[in-house]
Amino acid sequence: MGHKVRPTSLRLGITEEWRSQWFANKKQFGEYLVEDQRIRTHVKRHYLFAGVARIDIRRTRGTVHVTVHCARPGLMIGRRGVEIERLKAGLEDVTEGTVEVAVEEVGEPLLSAQLVAEDVAQQIERRASFRRAIRRAAEMVMTAGALGVKIQLSGRLGGSEMARSEKVLEGRFPLQTLRAQIDYGFTEAKTKYGNIGVKAWVNRGLLPPGTRISDTEERRNGVNAQ
Fold first, then answer.
1. Which residues contact 130 (CB under 8 A, 6 or more apart)?
2. What are 144-201's pLDDT values in tens digits?
3. What contacts 149, CB < 8 A, 6 or more positions away?
4. Which residues contact 151 (CB under 8 A, 6 or more apart)?
5. Which distant-in-sequence residues (6+ apart) come within 8 Å of 178 by Cβ?
6. What is the C-alpha to C-alpha distance for residues 196 and 28, in angstroms, rounded to an integer?
7. How confident is the model over 111-140, as pLDDT tens digits?
8. Residue 74: enclosing H or E segment and its boundaries?
9. What fold does the segment set 109-206 form as a domain?
10. Superfamily designation of domain 7-105
11. Handedness of CA 18, 21, 23, 25 (dihedral sign)
12. Model's pTM, two decimal places?
């Protein structure tokens, strides 16, 4: 099963938190789900240059709280907060409600699988050698402190007539170990031959036995787990 599904889905509540946190009745559920997708699409489309790794959405009564984890928060906030106010206004148009936006910096961008995948995709779109791009990215991720990295490309690589896959694997990948903090990212490189799928997996190490990601979050925020 570890090879058939995204590693993040198996680890929800253990090493991964839910990206959307809210409760809804049957009537609201579909509306909220579509709204979350529109929020994420809007942020990614307008702030790709900021290196957006993850977008968390939490809902309280009458307010949508959006937390954007990015590599370059200064570009997203802008001078005197101009950009973040523009983002807030854009999201309020999308949701037709009140939106609160927070920006958090990604500690080490090279350990974010989503940012690694997007970097490889951008190199392919600039017509760089796809083999060199994935090998260089894997080397940089391992140098940054990862215990393992895998990058896979699928599509008409190099303009070939038939679609195929190419991958690079470095280090260790315990996909069946749920305590393993394995990050996953996916994007597409748009080329004149069609879209090329880019997937990245990054092994950040093991959580201590008996520890869950919620425990580490509570300690970080100073919340009593009891």
1. 124, 153, 157, 158, 166, 196
2. 999 999 999 999 998 899 999 999 999 998 878 888 899 999 999 999 999 999 999 9
3. 116, 137, 138, 141, 142, 168, 169, 170, 171, 200, 201, 202, 203
4. 116, 117, 120, 134, 137, 138, 167, 168, 198, 199, 200, 201
5. 10, 11, 14, 15
6. 35
7. 999 999 999 999 999 999 999 999 999 999
8. helix 73-77
9. Ribosomal protein S3 C-terminal domain (3.30.1140)
10. K homology (KH) domain (3.30.300.20)
11. negative
12. 0.86
Count of Cβ atoms closer than 10 Å to residue 211 Cβ: 14
**Tokens encoding 172:** 């260790």
Give the amino acid at 133.
A
Give me 105's structure tokens: 């910096």
Q: What single-letter amino acid sits at 144?
A: A
Helix %, strand %, coil % of the chain (to 5): 40, 30, 30
Q: Where in the chain is the domain with CATH 3.30.300.20?
A: 7-105
